[in-house]
């Protein structure tokens, strides 16, 4: 199982991808597993995520995202792979989630 969310192993989420020394995870799948809402505009390649107190927009190939109206720079640009947008897993740490990465296993939990 590559993901543990709030202490529970989660199945059905696309495997993380390692690239450029960064672990990328599928934005919508992980956001929804954490209790959030995800919407994606295929034309503009922009994802809108509502997760707890956070409302943010992420665009493929752009490392600058907008969280609650403020720009934040990610360590690497999000990208699309097989109809899923992948973001650096550290995005969720930026949002206040505790995170650990052990090989290809990722654990996320609310603080």
UniProtKB/TrEMBL annotation:
Transmembrane stretches, start-end: none
Pfam families: Cu_amine_oxidN1
InterPro entries (UniProt xref): Cu_amine_oxidase-like_N, Mao_N_sf
Domain Copper amine oxidase-like N-terminal residues, every copy: 5-104
Protein name as it appears in the record: Copper amine oxidase-like N-terminal domain-containing protein
């Amino acid at each position: 199982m590559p993901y543990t969310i709030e202490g529970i192993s989660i199945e059905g989420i696309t495997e993380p991808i390692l690239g450029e020394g960064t672990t990328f995870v599928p934005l919508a799948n992980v956001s929804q597993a954490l209790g959030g809402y995800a919407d994606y505009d295929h034309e503009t390649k922009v994802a809108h995520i509502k997760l707890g107190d956070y409302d943010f927009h992420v665009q493929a190939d752009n490392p600058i995202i907008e969280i609650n109206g403020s720009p934040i720079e990610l360590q690497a640009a999000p990208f699309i792979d097989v109809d899923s947008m992948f973001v650096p897993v550290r995005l969720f740490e930026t949002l206040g989630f505790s995170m650990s990465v052990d090989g290809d296993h990722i654990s996320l939990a609310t603080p």
